[in-house]
Amino acid sequence: MLSRSNIILSLFLILCIFFTSCKIQKLAKEKKSLIEPTTIIQEYGNKIKTIQARVEYELPGTKPIAVKATMRACIDSALVISIQPFLGIEMGRLHFAKDSIILIDHYHKEYASGSYKDLSSNMLLSYEMIQALLFNRVFDPSNNKYLGFVGSNNNMWQSWTESVDAFDVEFLIDQGKYLRRTVLNSTDKISYLSVEYTDFTNFTDIDYPMTASYMLFSPTYKSMLKLYVDKVIFNTKVDLISSIPQAYTKITISELIKGLIQ
After folding, report:
1. Phi then psi for 39, rounded to 5 degrees?
2. Which H or E run includes 261?
3. CATH number of 7-24+36-261
4. Residue 233 forms beta bridges with which residues?
């Protein structure tokens, strides 16, 4: 059961379960050339180079669990989530770099490290995806400069979608050019992960959502998680160094995730 001591990995767990439940299907995709270049999604969020935020994660329920944390990122390089449930004392840390992951649990004096390939046999999870879901950004799962995306438009939304072998991704951008929703659907339509961004606040020339709601549905797991931003600062120097105490025990990422579910 998730508690204050291991809520540090709740969002991480949601992502892992989604991609574990996705089954790769080779798609016969019809090539569609876009009439207009995908300027909006290519440029979305480009004003942000670094970010520091004081936040609160909440697991809804009859007895909601909430924990405070800080998030720091150098965009397209690395990000760190520091969990500080009591008086600013760090109890856990998640460090995501371009090609590696470090998870530190100070409560149990354990840590896990590895690559994104350790998380799912489908090898779908990436740094760019985690960064996008946490910080209201877009990402290209095909890593092809968004050329595979197909756009549509109505009076309220611009929708940009792309299909890869295991899931579809859709970004919904409103007429104010705010990214309001990101949806990942498995191609077999049995699992989905949705992120809703609300409470946009203007910080000089940057508009940023102060609330994000994550919802996961899969055949074996259902979960919701809310992220509330208390304070955020952009484009200042950030410290992203993570050190592991020598006395800590190393475990595998799969062991750490298994312990969370139990």
Report:
1. -60, -40
2. helix 253-261
3. 2.50.20.10
4. 52
Domains of the chain by residue range: 7-24+36-261
> Which DSSP symbol is given to 89?
B
**Element containing residue 95 per DSSP (H, E):** strand 92-97
C-beta separation of 233 from 71 below 8 A: no
Picking from 194, 173, 174, 172, the residue whose alpha carbon sits closest to that of residue 183 is 194
Q: Three-class SS of residue 207?
A: strand
Q: Is residue 38 exposed (0-12), middle (13-18) or buried (19+ Cβ within 10 Å)?
A: buried
Instruction: Tell if the pTM clears 0.70, that is, is over it.
Output: yes
- The answer to whether residues 119 and 61 touch, using CB atoms and an 8 Å cutoff, is no
pLDDT tens digit sequence for 84-118: 877 788 888 899 999 999 988 888 899 999 988 87
Tokens of 51: 């970010």
**CB–CB of 180/197 below 8 Å?**
yes
| Amino acid at the residue 238 | V
Are 151 and 34 spatial neighbours (Cβ–Cβ below 8 Å)? yes
